[in-house]
Amino acid sequence: MRGLLRAPCFSTAAALIVSGPMAAAAGEAAFSEIALQVGLDFQHFNGAKGEYYFVEVSGAGGAFLDYDNDGDLDIYLVQGARLASGPPVDGETSAPPLVDRLYRNDLEISADGSRELRLVDVTLASGIRATGYGMGVATGDYNNDGWLDIYVTNYGANQMWSNNGDGTFTDVTVETGTEDSRWSISATFFDYDRDGWLDLYVTNYTDYALASHKPCRSYTGALDYCGPLAYNPQPDRLFHNRGDGSYDVVSAASGIGLVAGSGMGVVSLDVNGDDWPDLYVANDGMENWMWVNDRDGTFTNQALLGGTAFNDQGHPEAGMGIAAGDFDGDGDEDLIVSHLNRETNTLFENVGDGFFEDSSLATGVGLPSWEFTGFGIAWIDYDNDGWLDLAVANGAVKRLETLVLRGDDSPFHQTNQLFRNLGKGRLYDASEDLGDARLLSEMSRGLAVGDFDNDGDIDFLITNDGGPARLLRNEVGNRRNWLGVRFLDATTRRPLLGTWVELETASGESLRRRVRTAGSYASARDDRVLFGLGTSGSVGRLRARWPSGRQSVWDPGVRNRYLIFVAPRPEPTAP
Amino acid sequence: MRAAALALGMVLLGCSEPRPESWAPESAPLEPDTAAVEIIPRPDLAAFAKPVQRQVAEELEELDRLLADSAAETEDLAERFGRVGSIYHAYGLLEPAEAAYRNAARLGPSDYRWPYLLGVVELTRGESESAERSFSRARDLAPEDVPTILRLGELKLQDDRLAEAADWFRDAMVVEPDSAAALLGLARVDSAVGDHHAAIERLQRVLELEPEAGSVHYLLGLAYQRSGDQEAAARHIALRGVRGVTFDDPLVDGLQDLTSGIGVHFDRGVRALGEGRYQDSVKEYRAALELEPENLTALRGLALALAADGRHEKAAQSFRAMLRVDPGHRLARMELGATLLVSGDLEAAISNFEEAVRVDPDFRQAHFNLAVAHSKAGRWEQGVAALREVLRIDPRDRLGLYEMGAALDKLGRTEDAAIHLRRAVDLYPSLGVARQRLGDVLSRLGDGEGALEQYRAVLDLKAPNQEKGLARYQIGRILTARGADEEAIVEFRKAILLFPELQEARLAIGEALSRQARFGEAADEFERVVRTDGANIHARRRWADVLIRDRQFPAARRTLEEGLAAMPRSGEMAHDLARFLATTPERGLRDGDRALALAEGAYRAEQTLEHAETIAMALAEGDRFEEASKWQRRLIDQAEAGGLADDVSRLRANLERYQDRQPVRRGGG
């Protein structure tokens, strides 16, 4: 009788059966950690000396970006700085100096397809001197010159680094009018007025200052980091691109700057299917915002009515990172927000017309995240089966009592997680696929995703607060078929962030992805889209809805390679 | 009843999971398992308040004594382990609590309290499978305990086992028909399966039972929205609050009773104070005082919490209570003085600081505060005397040296000020505020290079951005004074980057650009100040002025009109608009009558030569040249009497215009 009752249930076991063969063989790790092996020797410095300054546990992110347009992903890593006076602590005086770092990818692919990976630290030559207490990084071509630029958020003044196209960058913060000296965490470039010029949204956290530092304590009475409620939340900032690469601050005029929040993550997506870019902002310890584009330069927060302000119990949570993607294959973008331990990561499933439902429990991502504090988070198809899986970078922000009792000097570290999408809306904790990286228990923050070795599967860049950057190479994804695509503007050759892409598979189903670099936590990702095709031998049509609202359709005809598609030139405007 | 509820759940959702085997009461071992008592981790409690440390130590001693007693009854041991677990649990020390509860459950297998509390700890630690086992065990032992049933329901809900969750919530309602928590659980199941109408019905009932549970309005709003009733959805979302639904949980609530000693209140009070929850801190210290009304630690904690909460008068009362208990308490005396200083009672503050230094002549902080109080009262000499005491006690006192420099500077003893500030900087090269001040002092002493050296040194410090921004601004000012406007502008821009709120830097950029006749760019700068700070009259006036110089007359008028609308009581804005209306070269923008009314208003508000001169201009614009000439001649007499030669020549030139029946026209660089 029990067996009969079980059979029709949509249980994990049942879904496993329908998910098909895995790319990795049983017991085989899908990822291997290769940071030092390829020359990624970055060590984050958070300035901690025992005062428990709030800012110490919040940074910092990293980026995958092709800054030199040579077709492979380079790496940008955000660094901290000294906070307190007194004698230097470990890492503070070591070489290289405390600045953000840029690593060039000198990938070489042999005729037999084997790859030699090598990263070269080009910070000095690049001219980037980002010496602030860094938090995050956003990438986009703000001046339409075809080269990716970098916006760095700091605890302090942010910086806009303009890519000169010759391997060097220039600080254009003042010239572009993109300064913000508050404590910023994440940022996203997006074109909210669809004029072909990237605007910029920056999340600001709290008004914490070292001078107003408050000592907070843990359960055990020991000094610990404060939470966001100990300080005042701050309004975010929206910069409008004037159409010449300089910006106006339109925070108040757009409606966005009229409310204060402890903003951490931000992502641009189209929540209501009207082809105008909206925004979702994760606030720490208070309601999240879903800024719906009113198409006239203003935004309206629809999170409350849309069901994304709170969790399914009506409670605010500690929003950190965000991922947007069509995880259930129903043609719209769903949201997942990473949270503190003793909260779940919360999955808001898009049910259409700008409305969402908290599906954390039904999808299986809720309980496994309960004991973890999540930061970086990304929807990715790591096994190329056509379903978006989920990666989460974890690390606590308050002392973990279990570690304290074991005498751990830095009781904040946790392991990262990987969830495999079993299809049709069910996710399974497959962290064992992280291989040896599963054993790394660190204070992870940023998570950037992209195909670092151009082999047709998604790799991870993970940043750690006060620890080394990690590079996780995907070893198995490309055993299944794939198709990589990049979308560029015909005239400027800039990546067309916001493009909505739909690929028909041989079986007649459609895979839909959005071109974006932002999301996760304080990090930036590959601007290419990688479709996993499973074992399918062919692909159907590829349809792109450009940020302008126009559409193009192609028949790629190939698989297992990267293709570049160019948007048609704008038609002349009628007089 | 159990079977009926289970069957109902299956009908509702179509599938279910079987209950765990331990659910069957007859399978549970009820004999004590004395062979497997595990060691309890004993964490370092150094960070806890002393009474808490004592309390835990006493409980552990009692446990050790019982364990060493071969005649001890197993039930007594179970009870003792349970109590130790509860105490650890109450203080948030979950790992030892878990071990102690496990021992209690083994030794007292028929007592539901221990598996229940063990389950709560496991749940808090994210060990949901263990928690489910523990709660199931508790349920076996106490089938009608509602908190146990609710927790089992919540666990099933978390695991998306909806039918089982619904069964447990219904079971809870069998025992307690008006359980808001059970109803809420069922409503969440309804929502999860898409039965929004059922969810609405249940959520409304929850609100009837717990009207203050504001978070339920949000859930109700979402349920209405999903059922298509947008109006009701908006109504309930507007009513949303933060409080959730709670249920009576005597075992967990009882943990608080274990921590009711005065030390616990200290611990909580300190923690709340540290986290900025000042009112909670006040409550804790008041609770401590109920136990020991004259406890000095509690009185001082209360005073500090009240002061942090901005209730200075009440804080002062608490400090005075300390002094009634111990009249010679120098810290209470000094802190009372500090509280009075903050609340503005300078004389009383000074009196208390003086008393504190009388009690202890080497009380450096009291001397320092006395100096601050004297400085606030403008008694710089007394301030200097108090600072001398500070430096007597500690000649290297960082703030003492800085404040001495600042006080001497106020007294006009600039060179002495420089000596003290220089010493502060030499001893503490990273003391940016002293370098700033030393730079200011050297600048006034005419040592521009020395000042620049100090400001530039600030830039090399790991100083706050604001401090660096100020240094950049001062560098820019020195460069401006040297006529190096271009270089100054670069410094001012960097200052803004570091300290965006430093409007003076933007104004300085505007002035430098204006001096270079780059009026359009200057106008942009002044406009940005106005857009940031709408009440900045100076910026508005300068903005309008450069627009006039740039011959942007309509924009200038718009700026002035907006300024007056924003600050209708400002005589300066009224005056500037009056002069514009009277003198602008663009005929369509001139308005002599309004100019005269505004100018007269401004003159009534403040009788200055400039305001009076504008009245004459307005009269001339209204073709009232005779009155304008007469008015102008009176001004010339007054200017001559005042020895204002430059003004006299301008006034005479305009008088000639009026006598030739020509109004004044102003515009262009």
Précis, in short:
Chain A is mainly beta and 575 residues long.
Structure description:
The complex is a heterodimer of chains A (575) and B (669). Chain A has 575 residues and is mostly beta strands. Chain A starts with a helix and ends in a 9-residue tail after the last strand. Chain B has 669 residues and is mostly helical. In chain B, 73% of the residues lie in helices and 0% in strands. Chains A and B meet through helix 1, strand 14 and helix 8 of A and helix 4, helix 9, helix 11, helix 12 and helix 14 of B.
Write the layout of secondary structure elements.
The complex is a heterodimer of chains A (575) and B (669).
Chain A: H1 2-6, H2 12-18, E1 31-33, E2 62-65, E3 74-77, E4 101-105, E5 108-109, E6 115-116, E7 119-121, H3 123-126, E8 133-140, E9 149-155, E10 159-163, E11 169-171, H4 173-176, E12 184-190, E13 199-204, E14 216-217, E15 223-224, E16 237-241, E17 247-249, H5 251-254, E18 263-269, E19 278-283, E20 289-293, E21 299-301, H6 303-306, E22 322-325, E23 334-337, E24 346-352, E25 355-358, H7 360-363, E26 374-380, E27 389-394, H8 401-405, E28 417-421, E29 427-429, E30 444-450, E31 459-464, E32 470-474, E33 481-488, E34 500-505, E35 510-514, E36 529-534, E37 539-545, E38 551-554, E39 562-566
Parallel strand pairs in A: 33-39
Antiparallel strand pairs in A: 1-32, 2-3, 3-4, 4-7, 5-6, 8-9, 9-10, 10-11, 12-13, 13-16, 14-15, 16-17, 18-19, 19-20, 20-21, 22-23, 23-24, 24-25, 26-27, 27-28, 28-29, 30-31, 31-32, 33-36, 34-35, 34-37, 37-38
Chain B: H1 2-13, H2 50-68, H3 74-90, H4 94-107, H5 113-124, H6 128-141, H7 146-158, H8 162-175, H9 180-192, H10 196-209, H11 215-227, H12 230-238, H13 250-258, H14 262-274, H15 278-291, H16 296-308, H17 312-325, H18 330-342, H19 346-359, H20 364-376, H21 380-393, H22 398-410, H23 414-427, H24 432-444, H25 448-460, H26 465-481, H27 485-498, H28 503-515, H29 519-532, H30 537-549, H31 553-566, H32 571-583, H33 592-605, H34 609-621, H35 625-641, H36 645-659
